User: What shape does this take?
Amino acid sequence: MAETRAGYFGAYGGRYVPETLMAPLESLTIAYDKVSRRRDFKQQLAALLNHYAGRPTPLYEAERLSDQLGGARIFLKREDLLHTGAHKLNNALGQALLARAMGKGRVIAETGAGQHGVATATAAALLGLECTVYMGEEDMRRQRPNVYRMELLGARVAGVDSGSRTLKDAINESLRDWVTNVSGTHYVLGSVLGPEPYPRMVRDFQKVIGEEARRQLKKQSRRADPDLAIACVGGGSNALGLFSAFIREPKVRLIGVEAGGAGEELGQHAARFKGGRLGVLHGTRTWLLQDEDGQIAATHSVSAGLDYPAIGPEHALMHEQGRVEYTAISDAEAVAAFHRLAETEGILPALESAHAVAEAIRRAPGLSSDRTVLVNLSGRGDKDLESVREYDAAHRAEGDGVGEAAE
Amino acid sequence: MSGLGGTSEIDRVFDSCRALRRAAFVPYVTAGDPDLETTLELIGALADGGADLIELGVPFSDPIADGPVNQRAAVRALASGTTLSGVLRMVSSARQRWSVPIVLFTYFNPILARGVAHFASQAAASGVDGVLTLDLPPEEASGEYIDALRANELATVFLVAPTSTRARIRRADELTRGFVYYVARTGVTGDRRELAPELLKQVKAVRRKVRHPLAVGFGISTPEHVAEVGSVADGVVVGSALVRLVEEHGRDAAGPVAEAVRRLSEPLRTARRGRRS
Assistant: This one.
């Protein structure tokens, strides 16, 4: 795909890590390139994805929502119906199998919304690996049920109380654990971030989303390809998973949706392509939200999974090339979309995915009814009930009418 | 700096320590912890206490290679408004009063945000002698970074770790100017009660493979550690043990830090030893 010189996507990517991790990353790269091509590995992973995780996930035409909007036909790729409730398991199973093939008995992971932590804890339980998940204490508060789920699955959840106590700090702590225990531990990074080989490895494990959706759409819509494909972008793994299938089809417009948060000021959002610039964080050179002095900025989003200051390096290249169009959806629009999908289709989307749904709601009315919009519904919203309830209560109290947008 | 300062200044330190048949003592503090005025005093305390070379940490919001002690120092430094420009101004005043060479210990993003070439010329003009960028391995340093630092005669210090392969050690040594920094254990910075087992053996083995002087850091926190590591290395770095004192004493840390540096560097002054070359 877009990988140019090894480990780079144009000017983005690379391996910006302390020396201690360099040789282990070289070994991981070699192991991944070798093991992932092996037929037995492919078969094992495919069997787990089909019989354990529940692939293929359905492609569902949201007719009531489409009718209400009066424009394009909207199709939802139902990654929310994957075991553990989000696309994250595709990658976690792949990397856990790889860890086992490399003879590592322990895996660690970071988590924001808790979905990647739950997916890794699940894969670790299934494959008999020891598991520690790092999670910011602010996110533990926002995603309490997922903390308990991870513990039930046998993982240790380590709270991180440094920095903003969110996803970024959980990655810092995961890297510190990894640098300390690198010989027996594999770090299951959850998005298309970090040093080579993670961005392409995670993308490859998520490609199944787009490959399936493309086949399903051809069958169900009787049209070749969608006019628009939309996905939310935190680190950006569900988006690359979906987009990969269409990247060479110039007629398919690809739209990545960042978290517009509560406002346009630095610190109020997580829209890297709106307020960010080139930098290096967590091992990769990419677009970052940062201050003038190169300190990483605070971010905000109602959805923990999008609340992160950097974007995957391949997205930075897609942005530069104009192949993917990036846009932002505010907290208010995302919560409104959450309600709307619940009420019109009986589906509670994850707040992350609600950003993609909101973008479809924004665009569909402007398109004719023979057009199709493919939305990646990357996760389910059960984890977000408390966040949505809090958000609505706070905004109803302020009387800004956001709650009404859902009606 | 034209011939004065920079790489040649660092070479001079290791040459004179070698002539005295002892390892160089290299204390570390985080710049701006708790504020830059205190750091300026601390540099004086380190110089007076017996530092041969000073490692000065540039605070960063996301210090992935640092343990809790240095993380907290970075938080305090950033809270007092420390910026890279402020650190360079402070170094400039320090160099007017003390001659001990200064190496910046930093993450890459603050350098990148300023522009690598711009950073290199400003750092050199401020009297910085070398730079160790923790998250910039040789692969990513080749090119703009190395060119800019060389052009300004700044030493380029690279890390070698227990996980480094022979090829990686060679590559780090090739790009190094000044000294190679050996990470004493796989892990983050921080004081430890015990040195890693096998450390002395590893240091000896790495030292045979590099042409540059080899300094050792990460987890060295007592005079006994300093004596042991100093018996096999060309330089001994003590960081978190001093940063802890700054945490404890805040703006009044200069006295306790000077005292600690005297105590920690003492073994290097008394124990002479046979050296290669």
The two ends of chain A are 43 Å apart (CA to CA). Confidence is low (pLDDT under 50) at residues 401-407 of chain A.
